[in-house]
Structures
1.
Amino acid sequence: MRGPGPRRPMARRAKERAFARRRYRGLALLAAIVVALPWALPNNFYFNVAILVGLNAIVCVGLNLLIGYAGQISLGHAGFFGLGAYSSAILTTSYGWPAWAAFLAGLVVVGLVSFLLARPILRLKGHYLAMATLGMGIIISIVLVQETRLTGGPDGMQLPPVSAFGAELYSERVWYWIVAASLLIAVWLALNVVDSPVGRALRALHGAPVAAAMMGVDTVRFATLAFVASALYAAAAGSLFAHYSGFLTPGEAGFMRSIQFVTMVVFGGMASTFGAVVGAAVLTVLPQLLTLFHDYEQVMLGLILMGTMVLMPKGLVPTLAGLAHRRAP
């Protein structure tokens, strides 16, 4: 009776190490794709799409920590994306801050706001939590529209170009590498969180919150941590978007933007960091391809989403990874 006891933890640790190796092989593959992709992009339009893929993927990697691992829904993360974008825009435009300082200040602002909101919001569960985060996002969007002196209101605001070493960064190719490096760092940080005790606590919170609390896991603390971390990811992507695009409107913080982010996470596969990246990539590129159908573009997109969720309820990447694992000798 005593023999199998020690082997179970050892087997569990071996399985976790195998998962960790696969994750970091995935990071190496992503880095290889990022490095090789510019050679296949023929013009600036494709570089622009690749940059948007990277920015959406950064948001989705952070949102996946909250939804996929911690099991806490959010329908208002575009609000944090907008706060990060407008914080950088206001500080650089109105106060003359350098872009890097405005970027860091935007993270601080969003970190404080998300922390203050997390405690009361995360006491709610299920659809009540979804409604609360939806209301949060709508409030942020309304504030950005109404504060015309700071944000320009519905007309938007223009940002000065970013300068580095005395040169202005206009080129899509330069911004591609900035966003690509940011995405790799974001994925690397998320993988480290997932493989840490924090990641195990988040999975316990998702799977059985009552049991996790009984085992000593501070569920409120870890849910708050996931909420703030995901908000910081969104703010970072928003700030990069603001400086890259050079022009902002409150629509970037709108409700439909939040729905897009959640859809990307679910489509790619919840509790899968690379699923979040793939979901963001597919759902950013797919509308560009579906323009071939003209007036039926949205219909085709809806059919593809419905079909994928029916045939792959776990999401794109987990389903394909499971099929590959079963077919492996």
2.
Amino acid sequence: MAALTPGAVRKQIAAGTPDAIYLLTGEDDVEKSALAAEFAELVDEGLRAFNVDRIHAGDLTTGDKLADGVASLIAATRTLPMMSPRRVVTVLQAENLLLPKRESEAATRALDALESLFEDPDPQTTLVLVAGSVDKRSRMFKLLQKRATIVECGAIEDRADAERWVRTRVAAGGAEIDAPAARLLVDRAGLDVRRLRSEVERLLLYALGQKRMTVDDARAVAGPASLVDDWAMTNAIEARQPAEALRQLALMLDAGAPPEKILGQLGWLVRAKFPQLKPAGVRPAIDAVFRTDQDLKRSAGEPRILLERLVVELCAAR
């Protein structure tokens, strides 16, 4: 089956249209745990005690224990939902199911039974396997590639996903974060998971003991802004998005980009793109770039203001 991002899976959960089997993998344990917990939303809150099961596979270290664990899993997935259209069964540390540590006749029989379950899942049950490191060469993983939806946890898709990521990490630290504070951290760190993790860790340390993190807390610890895309400013001008173009310009300047380099990008945009995008705007755009170049060389104004004026003019010419 398909490989989906965590964001795409959340859309399935919200729409109430989940697949039969999911394998959540990746190094981001917090993301895996948060996503696995969200599957419970497929069942009305008052009915979750009857229709949501969690199985821990961490202690399935022998063939006999594995056989018992697989039997319990099959029984849970084959049980009919009670007053609900769907059941959810989550298996934590599922790598112990998929690749037993010890081989034995009991383990082999258990794996055969598990394969039969994967080949013929119950249509009224969603099975969620939460695994750490999985051998992608193994027979069981190759079967899941055919029968399950594989979800790699750890990648961030867009700004909204990054802000949700920040909120999840802060919640895992026992606190909450205001929406403007989460946005500020994303503005500064971009979509880089490593830098976002560092920003959140610093915030939790700085506000140790607080139950809610504010934008002032985030501003106190956030590092310098990070660019998501070196060409986001010129792309925004092409798309006639002056507000986004100015935001990206501010990110570039805050990150230490020389004004001359930014002016060079804008000059390239005018020379390479404007003749096709807006032929009538080429001459005014060239004049604006030339004037800004002269003003920068003569120190005729603050570079940030001169470049902001140029960006606005180019958006208008575009």
